[in-house]
Amino acid sequence: MEPIKVQSEGGLNVTLTIRLLMHGKEVGSIIGKKGETVKKMREDSGARINISEGNCPERIVTITGPTDAIFKAFAMIAYKFEEDIINSMSNSPATSKPPVTLRLVVPASQCGSLIGKGGSKIKEMRESTGAQVQVAGDMLPNSTERAVTISGAPEAIIQCVKQICVVMLESPPKGATIPYRPKPASTPVIFSGGQGYTIQGQYAIPHPDQLSKLHQLAMQQTPFNPLGQTTPAFPGLDASNQASTHELTIPNDLIGCIIGRQGTKINEIRQMSGAQIKIANAMEGSSERQITITGTPANISLAQYLINARFRDVAAMWNDPSSMTTS
Predict the structure, then answer these.
(1) For residues 136 and 325, what is the distance between their CA atoms, to the nearest angstrom?
(2) What torsion do the CA atoms of 160, 63, 265, 109 make, to the nearest 10 degrees?
(3) Residues in the chain with pLDDT < 50?
(4) Are 63 and 47 in contact (CB under 8 A)?
(5) What Å distances lie between residue 241 and 3, 266, 298, CA to CA?
(6) CB neighbour class for 251 (10 Å; exposed up to 12, middle 13-18, buried from 19)
(7) What is the per-residue pLDDT for 235?
(8) Which residues does 148 contact at the CB level (< 8 Å), separation at least 6?
(9) How far apart, in whole angstroms, are the C-alpha atoms of residue 149 and residue 265?
(10) Of the N and C termini of the chain, which has fewer Cβ atoms inside 10 Å?
């Protein structure tokens, strides 16, 4: 649909639609209790904010309105995420505040204009706004869209979004765009002590043996042993809801693949597992780092599984260098 041109006090303004990709926890943050947060965002910004339905680990948040309204909505989302980060740090020994991160979903045909010749445009955006901007090399599954990740302080993100909007208006998408639609989540399978479990409410239900065998086979294919102790996280079916702590030891030279660029991977593991994960600073003369996982047994077991899965992914890339991408 062609943008609708309207006049505003700032001169020529246009109506735009911007799509964001968010994890479930991020969506919950902007919806707020009984939808109060998103209602206030809609009223204060003047933008239409719609959130895709479905039981998906990822959701699409669509923001539509005049550019001024879109920038206000983005500002409110960025400051809300910063508030969440500050609150999460109140119980953490970490001293450096991680950046706010937003992921835009952009038609692949417009990404070339965002990057610019020889990367000139994206470099200019980084330097003029202070935000980190990355355009994914691959299209999102079953779509012709790519993720554009923006990280930094809220002020830097807002300035960066403004520049991206200008580029998108100057270079409309070419051809038909197949939008990315996140797939519904299948019930997560957690492996502990060689047995597969699915989480249903507060209970860990043993999963069919076939999946457990597949997991064991996957573990045999990787040069890394399962992390931590092999004590089953679920001694019985009744998974206690009481928070507990589990510690892992990771070699220094492998910690980077768990943290990911600018903390993206460890943040994903935190969000997906619901566990608190703290990585100790490197100790002088030590070749290992301590990871402390806090949460319910289900949270801890899922966090362990996701960490192991991350190692298997990296191991697979090492075994097949042609599949390597920057992560």
Answers:
(1) 10
(2) -70
(3) 1-12, 200-203, 208-240, 319-327
(4) yes
(5) 50, 23, 8
(6) exposed
(7) 38
(8) 103, 104, 105, 106, 111, 114, 133, 134, 135, 136, 164
(9) 13
(10) N
Supply the pLDDT for residue 316: 57
Residues listed for the chain: 327
**Helix, strand, coil % in the chain, rounded to nearest 5:** 45, 25, 30
Rounded distance between C-alpha atoms, residue 138 and residue 146, angstroms: 7
Query: SS3 of 185, please?
Result: coil
Alpha carbons 294 and 291: distance in angstroms, whole number: 10
Tokens of 17: 């639609």
pLDDT of amino acid 241: 56
HSE (side-chain half, CA atoms, 13 Å) at 62: 11
Q: What does the alpha-carbon distance between residue 219 and residue 269 come to, in Å, rounded to a whole number?
A: 19
**In whole angstroms, what is the distance from residue 185 CA to residue 287 CA?**
38
On whether the CB atoms of residues 58 and 26 are closer than 8 A, the answer is no
Q: What does the alpha-carbon distance between residue 110 and residue 72 come to, in Å, rounded to a whole number? A: 23
pLDDT of res. 219 = 47
Full DSSP string of 235-251: SSSB---S-EEEEEEEE
